[in-house]
Amino acid sequence: VRTSGKEKCSSGQPGEMVTNLKASIRGLSAKVNEQNQRKCDVKDKLQQLRERISAEGVDVSVQELIPLLKSLKELEKQESEVRSYCNAKRSALEGAVFDLEERVAKGYDGEIPEEDLDVLLVESLDHLTSAKKELAAKLREIVSLKRQIDDVPCQSELLQYERRFSELNVCIQEKLQQTRKLYGTYNALLEIKDLMLKETSLLNSIGSQFQDVIGTSAGRVKLIDSMEGVMKGIQQKLGKVQLGLQEEQKLCDTSKEKYTAAAAEQRKCFTVLRAFQDECTKSDKLRSQISAVNTSDSKEVIE
């Protein structure tokens, strides 16, 4: 509270100032306690979440929660620093209040300098405003962290995602096989088309120019060269087809060998299983005979 000119405050005004400072300190303490309570609530929820994760065995959720927990630890560290800062400021304010009370008790002739009161009031308001801002920032970070934790999918959702991905993978594999077959058929039809076009063109050329070409030696040579070129092209095509056929035959032979080996292994397993079953039957018979002998011996001993 200011006075006109260079007047000074009365003894009632310092008391009001002390009351305001104490109220500010109580407000800061209440905010710190509220923040501690929220921190404890967040820790309890995290502990429940850890127990749930350990019970359900959600590895992916744990991997996603690790950075969130690190962020929470950083927030706890920052919160500890803010609390230390607030405690230090509160101690300073309490010291200022104590000084004011002493000065009021001593009186200084019933008056306190206005400049000191203004400085203390401005400092207290600044500290209170900064503490409120820091508290609001921490609360926003805690709320954001809780939302991120809530966004982590549970085990049932992960199982649904995995099942859906498996179904999509099967569909994609089927479509891929169908596409490969269609492309193979398309390429084969293109080659057949090229061969038929060449054959048709050759037959048309021969039919239209045969009489003219066959009558001269140069025409006959040209016709023979043309036929040889066609034969070379056909042989090249035939070579490519034979190479493809050989590769397919190799794959077929490899598959047959694998099938033969698997069938032999299966027969071997059946043989071993049958022998094992026979031995188990013999063992059961021997056990029954031994139990019968033991029973008869015990009866003889009793008699």
Task: Briefly say what this structure is.
With 303 residues, the protein is mainly α.
Helices and strands, with pairings:
Layout: H1 12-56, H2 59-106, H3 114-151, H4 155-214, H5 217-302
InterPro entries: CCDC93 (IPR039116), CCDC93_CC (IPR019159)
Protein name: CCDC93 coiled-coil domain-containing protein
Domain CCDC93 coiled-coil: 21-289
Polypeptide structure, described:
Residues 21-289 form the CCDC93 coiled-coil domain. One of its GO terms (biological process) is Golgi to plasma membrane transport. This is CCDC93 coiled-coil domain-containing protein. The protein has 303 residues and is mainly α. The protein starts with 11 loop residues before the first helix and ends with a helix. It contains 5 helices and no strands. It is flat. Residues 1-12 have low confidence and may be disordered. The relative contact order is 0.06. Helix 2 runs antiparallel to helix 3. Among the domains are: 12-152, Substrate Binding Domain Of Dnak, Chain:A, Domain 2 (Up-down Bundle), CATH 1.20.1270; 216-277.
CATH architecture of the domain at 12-152: Up-down Bundle
Helix share bin? over 70%
Structural class: mainly alpha
Number of helices: 5
Note poorly predicted spans.
1-12
Main sheet overview: none
Strand-residue proportion: under 5%
Query: Roughly what is the average pLDDT, rounded to an integer?
Result: 78
Radius of gyration: 48 Å
Question: What is the 3D form?
Answer: flat
Relevant terms:
single chain; 303 residues; mainly alpha; Substrate Binding Domain Of Dnak, Chain:A, Domain 2; CCDC93; CCDC93 coiled-coil domain-containing protein
